[in-house]
C-alpha cells in the first residue's frame, strides 16, 4: 500500500505536463480570447449590478419598514438611559413588561419594544458614543456599517474559484438582500453583528494567506464581548490552520473570563442584563433559526426551554465538530483546497452558533450560494446549473414567505434553519467525495511512477 505524506509530493504527481506555446492550436487561442471577452462582459455586468444594488438600497431606505433601524433604536434607547444616569436594562425591561401587560396601548406598526441584550462590558462604549450628537455618531456608524459589509463580502468572495468568478461577480451585489439566499431586509436594522463579521472574516483571509492569526483572535475576542456565542468562530483557524488549538483555547478562555467576571464588577447591571435576556426568550420566543432554536420553539410549551436548547444543541454540535475535524484532516493533507473547504467550514461554524439570527446568516450568503452552485453544477452544464440554482432559490423563498397558519416557528426562520442544515450536509458529502477522488488519482499516479521506475 502506497502512502503519500506531503502536499508537495501530491502536487508534483498531479502537476500537468507543460505544453509549448507553439503547440497551441488556433482553436485553443480563439477559445482563450472568447473566455477573456466573456469575462470582460461579466465584469461590465457586475459593475452595472453594483450600481443597481446601490440604487435599490437608496430607494428601499426611503420606504417605511418595520425592521428599518430596529437594532439602532435599541442602541439609541440604551444611550439615552445612560445619559440620564439610568440602568439601560432596567429601563428597557420596564417598557417591555408594560407592553406585555397592555400591547394595545402601542400604535400599530410600531416595533415591539426589545431590551438591550449586550452584556455590561459594552456599556463604556455606549457612554463614549453618547458623548457625541446622534447625528454625528449615526453618520459614522452607517458609514462603517456599510464599509464592513463590503469587507465581509470581499472576504467570502476569496473562496470563489477562478471558473466561478464571472457568475459570482454578478451575484455578489445582491447578496446583501438575500441572507443565506432568502429575501430579507435585516441589514437595514443596523445590527452590530455585520461589523463584527466583516472584521472576523477579513482577518481570517489574512490568516489563510499569511499564516498570521493574531488579528483574527483579537477580532473574535471583541465580537465575543458583544455577543458571547460568536466565540464559536474560533473553529475557523482550528480547522483550517496548523497549530492553532492553544491560541484558540486561550482566546475562548479570555472571552469566557470577560463574561464571568462581569457579575463581580457590575453585579446589579449583570443581574438586570440576565433579566433582559430572559424576557427575550420568555416574552418574544426569539430562539433564532438554529436547529436548537427551532426545536426549542417547537417544544416551548412542553419542555423548559433551557433543557431543550442545551440538549438539542449538544446533540448536533458534537456531530458538526466531528465532521469538520474529519474534513480538516483532508484539507491540511492537501486533498482539498481552501476554495473547496472554506464555504463548508464557514457554514458549519455558523451552525455551531446556538442562536443564529438573520444577521448571522447574512455574512455567509456567498459561501452558502457557492455550495449550492457547486452541487447544481456537478456533472451539469452552466445552463443546467443555473436552472437548478434558480429553482432552489424560488422554492426556498416561497417557503420562507408562506402563511404562518399552523406553524410553530416563523416560516423564514424555519426555512432558513432547515435549508442551512441541508446545505451543510450536502456540502460535506460533496467534499468527502472529492477527497476520495483525489486519493484515487494520487494512487493511480503513484502506481504508474512505481511501475515505470521498476
Low-confidence stretches: 1-37
Gyration radius over CA: 25 Å
The percentage helix is 55-70%
Q: What's the N-to-C terminus distance?
A: 16 Å
Query: In percent terms, what proportion of residues is strand?
Result: under 5%
What sort of overall outline do the alpha carbons produce when their principal axes are compared? globular
* Average pLDDT over all residues: 84
Q: Count the E strands.
A: 0
The number of helices is: 20
Compressed to H and E, one letter per element, the order equals HHHHHHHHHHHHHHHHHHHH
The profile of the biggest β sheet is: none
- Main structural class: mainly alpha
SSE topology sketch:
Blueprint: H1 7-14, H2 26-62, H3 70-83, H4 88-101, H5 123-130, H6 134-157, H7 165-171, H8 193-210, H9 214-226, H10 235-240, H11 245-260, H12 262-265, H13 267-282, H14 291-298, H15 305-332, H16 338-351, H17 358-361, H18 365-377, H19 382-400, H20 411-453
